[in-house]
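Shapes recur. One chain:

:::
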Amino acid sequence: MSKLRVAACLLLLGTTIAVAAAAKNNSTMMCVGLDVGTKFNMPTPDIVDNGSPSRNPVKVNNDTSILIIYTTYPEGATAAYRLQDVVASSTSLTNVVASTTHKNETAVSETVFQFICNTAGVALVNVTMAMTGCENQYFIIEKLCGQPDQSRKGFAVGSAPGRADIVTDGIVHSDYQLANPFLIPSSLDNTTLYLSMANHEEQKILSPIVVCDETIVKAQINSKLAAGGVVTSVSQPFEIFWNCHAPGKALVSISFHLPGYHSVELDMVKDCTPPVVETAESGMSAWFKFVIVIGCVGGAFALAYAYRYHSGFRGKEAIPFHEQFYACFDWAKSFSATARGYRPQAQDEFDDVESPTTAAEAELAPTRYGTI
């Protein structure tokens, strides 16, 4: 009888332990207290709510390459994210990177997902939260990679670092379009553009293409982006060297191909006209031309005079256009005489004093009127 009691007690104890373990394991599997959402402190998290994952994918539009999610962990639980692109990455996504930081001293972390698109399309990213102290969690990110007929928002090209005075949000300014191309003066041998993305985003770019009239000028690219790469929020220089080998103006077209978006094309005109430089030879040439002109005019005048003299004219009659010449001379003489006879109106008492006309008056003048 005592043996039966001992066996019953052992059976009851084993059942109790098993139920407790199952309950504990069930609480661990449920991951109660785990919240994951796209906004901080969401009342109802849209990814994982109290350990229950959502069946809807997290959608990321084509106008952004960043997704931020916030995770609140239950006590004693942490997670490491593992990513897997379930669509061929060579056609949609080039890369996905996740980095997690703790937002504060509480059990809340902030995870930033960065997407780099390769071509237009939709990419599904399967995310695994490898938990410790809790059941693994799974959710899906649906990334829309661009629209070929849309401009890339945030893509900028400027004439200086941090500027967007040439291209803003993937749209070319009017000064760099074919209807009104930007003129690069002949004094410049190189042009530097600066490429960047706004809002800390990234954008893949294929190898840029520069097309110009090579009978006038040849272009050479000097940039880390010459073979393509990734444009970030840090301005990256794109330098072009111009090698003019013929005079004239050449139309230049620069194309930046952004996978998944409308290409950006800049139009410029490179002036290869040699600058005019004043030299000693050019100065002598101008003086020589002046002497030739004077000689020709003088020679024509001498020939006309000889002809009139041979025709019987003498004195001033032999001078060509003598009537007009002497008319001008007489007018100049009369004008000079008038100018000499002009006397301004008196300005003080001494201006009204008449000059002495006799020797006696001249002798008395200093004492009579005072010495000025």
The first strand starts at residue 35 and ends at 37. Residues 186 and 275 are 7 Å apart (CA to CA). Helices lie at 2-30, 280-310, 322-341, 359-369.
